[in-house]
């Protein structure tokens, strides 16, 4: 099954639950890099993506860490929003 990000208006959704764990962060970083300023990457994951949050906050200047949100929808579904800063 091919993995793809679904593009919505100013928001891209990436369900990483079916992506092998060792490939997830690279796929997320690549997808985030393709976003335009002001857009948001929504990640659907099987665990809280706190390590990814810290990684992106430390490594990606365009990540709006203040706008980050995460919601646990059930025991194996977390929905996290990783916004990209507006261009200044």
Task: Draw up the topology in text.
Elements: E1 6-8, E2 11-15, H1 21-34, E3 40-45, H2 50-59, E4 69-74, E5 77-83
Parallel strand pairs: 2-3
Antiparallel strand pairs: 1-2, 3-5, 4-5
What does this structure look like?
- It is built from two helices and five strands, in the order E-E-H-E-H-E-E.
- The chain has a single domain, classed as Translation Initiation Factor IF3 (2-Layer Sandwich).
- It is globular, with a radius of gyration of 12 Å.
- Strand 1 and strand 2 form a beta hairpin.
Offer a few descriptive terms.
88 residues; five-stranded mixed β-sheet; alpha+beta; Translation Initiation Factor IF3; 31% strand; 27% helix
Question: What's this entry about, in short?
Answer:
It is built from 2 helices and 5 strands, in the order E-E-H-E-H-E-E. With 88 residues, the protein is of the alpha+beta class.
Spatial ordering of strands, largest sheet:
1-2-3-5-4
Portion of residues in helices? 25-40%
Question: Runs with pLDDT <50, length 5+?
Answer: none
The third-level CATH topology is: Translation Initiation Factor IF3
Q: How many independent structural domains?
A: 1
The second-level CATH architecture is 2-Layer Sandwich
Name of the top-level CATH class: Alpha Beta
Average pLDDT level: 90
Main sheet properties: 5 strands, mixed
Q: What is the CA–CA distance across the termini?
A: 39 Å
Strand content: 25-35%
How would you describe the shape? Answer: globular
Number of helical stretches of at least 4 residues = 2
Secondary-structure content class: alpha+beta
């Amino acid at each position: 099954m091919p993995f793809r990000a679904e593009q919505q208006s100013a928001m891209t959704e990436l369900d990483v639950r079916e992506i092998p764990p060792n490939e997830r962060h690279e796929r997320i970083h690549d997808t985030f890099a393709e976003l335009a300023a002001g857009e948001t990457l929504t990640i659907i994951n099987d665990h809280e993506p706190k390590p990814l949050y810290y990684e992106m906050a430390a490594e990606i200047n365009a990540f709006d860490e203040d706008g980050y949100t995460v919601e646990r929808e059930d025991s194996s579904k977390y929905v996290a929003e990783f916004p990209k800063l507006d261009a200044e």
